[in-house]
Write a structure and sequence with these properties.
single chain; about 300 residues; Arginase, Chain A; eight-stranded parallel sheet; 8 helices
Length: about 300
């Protein structure tokens, strides 16, 4: 009988942390979800689906895994307080960055992103954040905690990271008032303004600099990603999103230093949304593999 692939991202053979250039960090954390539950199963579902991908990318004409990928053990497998979660995630990611690793975090809910961004900012003081999402996530507090998934971007802004948001199509009155009164360093590109030229236009308009990408899967239309905590109609599709990411990461004046993909709430591990998410992560790795830093072109 054939041997089963290792239970790693893409079923890749285990390598040492020392040899890895990129690490996959599963963060199966779910404590503040406010609609559909199940984001704690997201990282495992992504890894499960990824083991069935073809490893050759026909668009990029290479195998992105050769960049050197290591899948780490899942972080925070048990329910803990949001404040405790934030401290542990920031400490863990900081340790990996200190070792020179590119960290890819798999959520879990969106509340995992602010501490990951905080860790990156220690090493990249001029860090900016590219935020793909259906929601503004600018609430100061929600359901009794400032660490709620609906507060992710508000917490990131408090760390003095400018944010470039795309796809927003759900926002509260309180968030609008915050934007008007405080005038924070966030540029919101509302979904209703993102016409057919948005991949080319917004990839050009993004300010130059060092970026962290946080991608909430509800950025996509529920027609292709129904398995997410808070789906919103009017979202975006596969090729246009990839086109934007390819153009954005391909800019010589932009450096992407880390990313996360969050809010997959799989109904089962064989959901097409799980496979889409795995392929999305692999595509981003491939786009990065063409940069001089990783020398896979």
């Amino acid at each position: 009988m054939p041997r089963e692939a290792p239970y790693t991202f893409a079923g890749l053979p285990e390598i040492s942390l020392q040899k890895a250039r990129m690490v996959i960090l599963p963060v199966p954390y779910e404590c503040t979800v406010s609609y559909q539950v199940g984001t704690k199963f997201g990282p495992e579902a992504i890894i499960h689906a990824s083991r069935n991908m073809e490893l050759y990318d026909e668009q990029l004409q290479m195998e992105p895994w050769k960049i050197g990928l290591k899948t780490l053990p899942g972080l925070l497998p048990e329910r803990q307080s949001p404040a405790w979660m934030a401290r542990v995630i920031e400490k863990t990611v900081s340790s990996l960055l200190a070792k020179g690793k590119f960290v890819i975090s798999l959520g879990g809910e969106h509340s995992i992103s602010p501490p990951v961004v905080a860790a990156h900012r220690k090493f990249h003081p001029q860090l900016r954040v590219l935020h793909l999402d259906a929601h503004a996530d600018l609430r100061d507090s929600y359901e009794g905690t400032p660490y709620n998934h609906a507060c992710a971007v508000r917490r990131i802004l408090e760390g003095n990271c400018p944010v470039f948001s795309l796809g927003i199509r759900s926002v509260s009155q309180q968030e609008i008032e915050f934007l008007k009164k405080e005038k924070p360093p966030v540029e919101i590109n509302w979904a209703y303004t993102m016409n057919s030229d948005w991949p080319e236009r917004l990839s050009r308009e993004a300010p130059a600099g060092c970026y962290y990408l946080t991608l909430d899967l509800d950025f996509f239309d529920p027609a292709i990603v129904p398995d997410t905590g808070t789906p919103e109609p009017g979202g975006f599709f596969w090729w246009e999103t990839l086109h934007f990411l390819e153009l954005f990461t391909g800019r010589e004046d932009i450096e992407l230093v880390g990313f996360d993909v969050v809010e997959l709430a799989p109904k089962n591990f064989f959901s097409p949304a799980c496979f889409l998410t795995a392929r999305l992560i692999y595509k981003i790795i491939g786009y990065l593999g063409r940069k001089k830093k990783f020398l896979l072109a």
